[in-house]
Protein 1
Amino acid sequence: MKMNKTAVFYGILITIIVLALIISSDLNKTPDLKAKYADFVTEQILSQDTTNTFGDNLKVLRGIHSRNQLLNVMRGFTEALGVKCDFCHNTDNFASDEKIQKRTARVMIRMVADIDRSYLDGPRMEKVTCFTCHRGASIPKLVVER
């Protein structure tokens, strides 16, 4: 009987150690810092197409020609900042510029586009996106948190 208790004890101990190793290895992995919709935002702000045939009051987005394009870009912003539409928009009038967050977003979009065009325009260079700094928070995170 004593041998069975010892075997059970060591079996449980080994199981706990293995689980702890698995969990700690997952915690030490570098987090994926690429948002699902980030490429949609990058594509539109760096677009060579400066026309928009869809949407109202688009001042910095470029090459928007469909509802789907615009929604994917907006999803990129909401994902990157961890916010909903009403963070930047008056949801009764999406074209309105009344919210400072929308005006700030335009400044930030121009900044990201300038960084990407001026400094990251080489082959195989990753582009900066809103998610690069914000990582799901409305206030940018300055350090990668683990």
Protein 2
Amino acid sequence: MKWTSTLTAALVIVLLVGLGGQQNTRAENNGLERTPVLGWSSWSFLRKHPTTANVEAQARALKKSGLQKLGYEYVNLDDMWYQCPGPQGPNVGPYGQWVIDSSRFPAHGDTNGIKALADYVHSLGMRFGIYVTPGISKQAVSKNTPIKGTPYTAAEIAEPSVAENNYNCGGMVRINLHKPGAQAFINSWADMLASWGVDYVKLDGVKNSNAPDVKAWSNAIRQSGRPMVLDATQGSYTQAIAPTLMKYANQWEFPPDVECYRCEKGGSSYPLTSWANVEKRFNYAAEWQPYAGPGGFNDYDSIEVGNGNSDGLTPAERQTQSSLWALASAPLILGVDLTHLNPLDLKYLKNTAVLAVDQDSIAAKRVLNNGNRQVFAKMEPSGDVIVGLFNTGGSAEKVSVQASAVGLPANERGYSAKNLWTGKMEKESGAISANVPSHGVVLYRIRGL
């Protein structure tokens, strides 16, 4: 069906701007992440126990599941890949960078364990990511390790009295990036990661005061000569750091972890999350919407869809999480055990109509926030309007919004609305409405008749 001829080109432009079609004009211009990344990360399921064997198994499962063909191509190794002997900080090599835990990631001949893992991921046609945190290890400071390629040392660039976030090991202190040798130290990190074949760097534990570190890492990655996505993740920062993130990072995660640590049973990672942790993202998605666009996206943390009841979400809640992330054009990074995918969840993850909403790179605006009823909407360059009708309440409710509120022009013939989860076509008129189950969503692609 064709979009109504009464919608002029000028009106399309106005509506695109109003619903988030032109955003983040100062985004990182390193050529990466023009659309949100798709992939998998080790933290939610593997937590503190990643190894070569279990990460490779997840990579194979990503490929075998068919998800790789749909664009899920990043395999990201989160924390605990390095030696952590205690509160004195990560063990360091001769130039102050962390040392690989070879008991988890053994070398293959002359190839260190992380490069060997990256090579394996690349052999499957995928990309490899790794985890770091700002600052420098106390061990590098106490040993006063030299900074590679310079006459400077770790003690000369460190501020030992200022602790940096490293959640599972500790022992990191601030780098004074005004000191000679400081940028060179970050450069040496990026050069090392580039030599390992890293494609994605998660810089975790970022606070507002770490804005200089984000810039330093961006510059370091650029000078390394290897394209690497830079993901700056939370240590409880605010929108005050947004201009820096938009200029120097490719994505940024500001909410607290989506995992439900207090819910876990029997020492497992299950359930992975909770409805309460997903529901918190509605306000974040609304508040951070203006900052997202090609080159830099809001990261709402892992998608916990894939392990059925072990996700910690009902089927309706899984559709809600996927829909909210897609409407926000957020990175879709799975946190689940890919080797035991639930058939229904896999169907959700393979829904190409929903994936297309995520990959349009437009972050939707919240146009209704009324009690349990929330509506997010965005207009795509084609003129199609994507509308998510959400019900956060405990029982089914009718959710309705005026067509004009989501950017639809007046049309006497009404609108066709495709339900992107069921595939069913419906007709709407002056209002876009649906009966929405508890904690559920109806996600429409709408155009004029």
Protein 3
Amino acid sequence: MVLGLAAGLLTTIGFVPQLVKGYRTRRMDDVSLVMPMLLSAGMALWLGYGIMIDSLPIIFWNIIAIGLNLGMIVLKLKFSNPDDMRT
């Protein structure tokens, strides 16, 4: 279980620098909207799988990762140029 928690921590915190940068600069023009949407869908499936097999690391980190991805989507919608919303 410790290995799963450590792996989840490292893969999940990878989203934090982009969120912080987007929030600070108020720019998300270079970030694709599709990427966090697809990742959120995949993580939702992983969350469902984690619930099915009762795996705390999978459940815990995918809930957090979905939240971070939703934050990325919100920042993209709020701070992007309308012309950049096509990708």
Protein 4
Amino acid sequence: MRHLKKGRKLGTDASHTKAMLKSLAIAVLANDRIKTTETRAKEVRPLVEKTVTWAKKGDVHSRRLAIAALGNKEVVAKIFSEKDRFEGREGGYTRILKLGPRKGDAAPMVIMELVD
């Protein structure tokens, strides 16, 4: 039973799902855009948005929360140094553009990118 379990399972166990979402969030923040499946993009979006919100705050506590969530100090330092590009925006820091089905298994593919 899945009572009180939040989030999608994504075909893996909980630890693999958590690791995959963490690596996807790091990839989006490091490269500004990634190509992935639609369900993965929808699932990683809250983590990316939360990290950008922490970067906009810019205090030590927010930096430590971001490092704890992502586990990558270099990416956290990059996003905290680029926080000015998100200053005029109250939310919605990511965009998901649909590409169509993947050739092998017809999974819906998207490009997820940070909005300037």
